[in-house]
Design goal:
Layout: H1 6-10, E1 26-29, E2 38-42, E3 49-53, H2 63-77, H3 85-89, H4 93-101, E4 113-117, H5 127-130, H6 135-140, E5 149-150, H7 158-162, H8 170-186, H9 200-206, H10 208-223, H11 234-246, E6 252-256, E7 261-265, H12 266-285, H13 287-296, H14 308-318, E8 326-332, E9 337-339, E10 343-346, E11 349-359, E12 364-373, H15 377-382, H16 390-407
Parallel strand pairs: 1-5, 3-4, 3-9, 8-12
Antiparallel strand pairs: 1-7, 2-6, 10-11, 11-12
Length: 408
């Protein structure tokens, strides 16, 4: 923190004049035209994956880290290219050289993946969610009103100026603030206080990694409505026509980059964006069906072969002679794929611990895991995510906690 200036941090805080519900919160996009003349867009963009890069939190001033943050900014700004972006970015000499230096980057070839800095507090990673919160919630949960938030992150070193000054429990505060923000949209009839802290709907509302991909898709959809940047010269027109003539029309289209601008501005637009996020979550992950299934215990008994042994072992170790606990595993398939330290990789599947609910009265334990297909298994291995079995360890902790509660 010695290299960090408090003045730089204070420059990130909204002024009294900027703390206006009509203009705060603000999420802005810088046009990729600042970096690229043209943008190739696949006819069908593959489903995005999200990859946390853990080494970015160490030695933020080292040359390799600075190069990687620059690559991350350019990579994420080319989000419209989806799985085609590696063909554009790694064509550039400096990134081609860095790819040879960092084996992980080779695994990004032809992948539609967002690169997220896995810093201690994950401020930049969760910025789309943070930027939906009104001032009243920021004040209630002790969070600073950060000004002029930009997505995708253009300069990931931003965290270097912000994170050291955030509360140590920033993620916990953000989780509670976001749950309060999204709650009226997923249960308009009751206050969160009407439910226990481990009620599944409350747990879901607090899960930042569940909501993050859906918030990103809202940003993508809104920016996709922007006009293309105008062609400035005759050479631009000639070059674009030449490129278009050489790109197979059944694979991609090529045009100028889209204009930047506000993704949302002010509390009203942020609330609209939050509503769109909930709708997207329901369409892609059957949010309402998941909630109803867990609430009514109409859970799916089918479970992947990978976890059949783990399930049997889990049940065997939890059962006791004087009482048998009914255990139900719920698998949320086709979830948005976020690969980080909390993920467990098995072949081409990515697993994450979602939540667990223990009903002491009925002696029933429901364990919910998310599963998604991934093309980044080798990248996860290179980052060490495929070696430490966090989900298996989480199941062991759940089992121990359940036994402790039931034995009392």
């Amino acid at each position: 923190m010695s290299d960090v200036s408090e003045v730089e941090y204070l420059n990130k805080i909204a002024t009294e004049e900027e703390r206006n519900p009509a203009t705060y919160p603000e999420l802005y996009n810088l046009s990729a035209a600042f970096l690229y003349r043209f943008m190739a867009r696949p006819l069908e963009r593959s489903r995005p994956e999200f990859l946390y890069l853990p080494f970015l939190q160490n030695a933020p001033r080292s040359k390799t880290i600075l190069e990687l943050t620059g690559l991350m900014g350019e990579w994420n700004m080319a989000w419209e290219q989806g799985q085609l972006r590696s063909q554009t970015i790694f064509y550039r000499k400096e990134w081609s050289r860095l790819k040879r230096k960092v084996p992980l980057l080779k695994e990004l070839q032809n992948r539609n993946v967002y690169l997220l800095p896995n810093t201690e507090k994950r401020f930049n990673a969760y910025l789309p969610l943070f930027s939906m919160l009104p001032l009243s919630l920021l004040e209630r949960y002790g969070l600073p009103p950060i000004r002029k938030m930009v997505w995708p992150t253009v300069a990931p070193l931003d965290w270097y100026h912000v994170e050291p000054f955030l509360p140590d429990d920033f993620q916990e505060r953000l989780s509670r603030a976001f749950a309060a923000h999204v709650w009226p949209l997923i249960d308009s009839g009751s206050s969160p206080r009407a439910f226990s802290k481990d009620e599944p709907l409350r747990l879901l509302a607090h899960n930042l990694d569940f909501w993050l991909p859906h918030a990103v898709r809202v940003a993508e959809a809104r920016l996709s409505q922007n006009y293309f940047v105008e062609l400035e010269t005759e050479k631009d027109r000639q070059d674009l026509a030449e490129i278009q003539a050489n790109v197979p029309k059944d694979e991609a289209t090529v045009d100028r980059c889209r204009q930047g601008g506000h993704i949302w501005l002010g509390e009203a637009e942020a609330r609209e964006a939050t509503s769109e996020m909930v709708e997207i979550a329901d369409k892609s992950d059957q949010l309402k069906s998941l909630i109803d299934a867990i609430r009514s215990n109409r859970v799916e008994e089918d479970f992947s072969e990978v976890w059949s042994y783990a399930r049997e072992d889990f049940e065997r170790k939890l059962h006791r002679k004087r009482s048998r606990v009914r255990i139900k595993f719920v698998e949320l398939s086709e979830a948005e794929n976020i690969i980080g330290p909390e993920s467990e990789i098995h072949e081409r599947s990515c697993w994450q611990d979602f939540f667990a609910i223990l009903d002491e009265k009925e002696l029933q334990l429901v364990v919910c895991l998310t599963k998604s297909a991934t093309n980044l298994s080798e990248a996860a291995r290179l980052l060490g995510y495929a070696n430490h079995a966090p989900v298996s360890k989480a199941l062991a902790r759940i089992r121990k906690k359940a036994r402790d509660i039931l034995d009392n």
